[in-house]
Queue: 2 jobs
Job 1
Amino acid sequence: MAVTATSVSQTSNSTAAPTLDAEHPLSSVKGESKQEHDARMAWWREAKFGMFIHWGVYSVPAGYYHGKPVERAGEWIMNNAKIPVAEYQAFAKEFNPVCFDSAKFVAAAKSAGMKYIVITSKHHDGFAMFDTKASDWSIVRATPYGKDPLKEIAEECRKQGIKLGFYYSQAQDWNNGGSAAHGGHWDKAQDRNMDDYLDKIAIPQIKELLTNYGSGTPAVIWWDTPVEMNPQRSERIQRVVQSLRPGVIQNDRLNDGKEARLSRKGLYPGDTTTPEQFVPPQGFPGRDWETCMTMNGTWGFKKEDANWKSSETLIRNLCDIASKGGNYLLNVGPDSLGNIPEESLKRLSEIGNWMKVNGEAIYGSGPTPFDGLMGSFSPTERDKEGHPKFIPEWKWRATSKPGRIYLMVFDWPKDGAFQIPKTSRKFVSARLLADPTVKLSLLENDDGSGTILKGLPERAPDSSASVIVLEE
Ligand code: GLC
């Protein structure tokens, strides 16, 4: 009997995000004051830019099954091709990442100016990329490699000063019998009682991940696809988290359904909202949020996915996200030998070159002080949720810090002048981050409609985004 995904219906008329205080519906979530919350989020808000790593046994088939390409994301291949459990588990015997080098993984993140890493410890296929006692379906017990890469990465992150988070798919598990994905199980070997799965696999593994990787690790838990995760089951997991690592940052995907993502009452809102593969038009004012995005068309490695975004696009996405107050979690998908694809490394290095000169505009920045959407809503096109599709305009963005505003200009002016929109903030000087020797002048518009900045060089300092600092 196929297990069907029965999401718990949440009736909620409140749209306000719940406060994490005593009346929080999940009693295990201790209320914290705004000061405590800000202190806990401080490193994450400073970091702004992280590396997502999707790595698992799905990198062996790498998007192909029985010689045929399988559509959609590489890490979903078992589900998308309805591969029987026994057949999928045979891939583990070919998974021997002899090229894996934790120092190279961490160096790749640092080369881009990334300040944290979130790596898949267990994805929806249930394959544990770590040494777990709860199941034999792991890189230590089921592969010729036989070692725990997360332990090596955790040690390397501590050495290189990068925070490490663990992605954990807490509900779906297509081999150990976790909840069904959309459409239900396809192999009788998967059928299992969900609470028994939580008891025997998920909760023991979450405890292992929270306690076996050293102090401060994980700094983030990245839950995903909360199929059949009702508040009772979330409560059980939260009790474990709050007792073993109360300061860990969590996203909004522990609970079931859309409500969790909107952090509505009655569900554990987590600390961060997680728009995936898109940048919300105005961010989520007053809420920490993070756009996660692939560099090509897949999270997990696919040998033929060449749908790479340009470094210019990735840099402008980073500027766009930071200008709306968000973080950018940009993905790499290592192959079955443990290599990060060259195309990814190239982009990481190019982003890093930009960050070396312009990172001051991103790290620890706040959202733009200027009003107005940098784009418009299409009168005809709809987004995934049926709302009018937002079409961004790629002229410029801005971020802010006390006493400073950073203009990140994509479309460099031809006449050496830039019109700064009206704002209550008054500027006394301006300079190019790339070349502070260039003399720039500021002149208030007579009609009070803003300020004109003059003296810009003919050539943009950077073809992707050039940063002008406005000092107050
Ligand atoms: C979706 C996909 C999952 C991926 C995640 C990253 O939830 O199901 O495969 O890990 O996005 O945000």
Job 2
Amino acid sequence: MTLVPKADLHVHTTASDGKFSPQQVIDLAVSKGLKGLSITDHDSIEGYLSMREYAQQKDIELLSGVEISCDYNGREAHVLAYGFDATSADLQQMLREQRQKRTTRSKQIISKLNTLGFDIEYDEVRAEAGKASISRNHIADVMRQKFIVASRKEAFDRFLYTGGPAYVQNGYITVNEAIELVHQCGGVCVLAHPGPYYIFEDLRYFLNAGIDGMEYIHPSHNFQTQKKIKDYAENYNLLLTGGSDFHGIKPFEEQMIGTVCVDLTRLDKIQERCTSRYSLNI
Ligand code: AMP
Ligand code: MN
Ligand code: MN
Ligand code: MN
């Protein structure tokens, strides 16, 4: 019996809120027998860019990827972009602006935490994040180190959740703008983890905005959710993608790489769609 080659199209590294370096993530994926991978850091392609040569030496296909934080009618939506031209100056400029917005937002969140009586400073959070695209996870990590909370989860559950006491809305790029820009760079856009976040009326919004696919395999999706999203996507001829959303934080998360994954043919389908879109544009 031959094994069907598999791909993980959703992982994070130290370039955003993951704990493993880009190289460690690639080594882990290779060790688990994966044949395709996309590094999809939040608003950063730095991890992907640093690994292009390394991945070529390994028996794994690395697809360009990024998870873009978007504004969706005042709510937050995560859009996964794939197969784009990573050298695009417009794309890199957009991602820089997004990271700048993340910095501003982090400072506002920290000031709310200070008002709530907690001793935490921006410099500490910046040091924790290093050069990474800063996020609420880095704030949560510093809160844990300072014994304000016992875990990232507690930090979110008590303070950082959407609408929570230390929550600040961000002025991210809109879904429409993100999709338009990614298309201009020859890539495709996929709605990340629709299961826990959206109802089916919302999917119509993303469809109208020009979304190219849906992420149906995700740790937060049970079989029923996978099927609902798959049926919906097939009905509209959308791409189907999936991955582990690996951050390297939760216990046993390493086991999700090589377990929560899709057939490598899903990666090929993304590339076919990128090529056909590209040929339509010229
Ligand atoms: P941010 O990028 O700053 O908006 O932070 C969002 C990230 O925090 C997500 O990508 C998840 O990795 C993580 N996270 C963990 N728990 C939660 C939660 N309850 N709500 C939102 N994000 C969470
Ligand atoms: Mn994350
Ligand atoms: Mn996400
Ligand atoms: Mn993610």
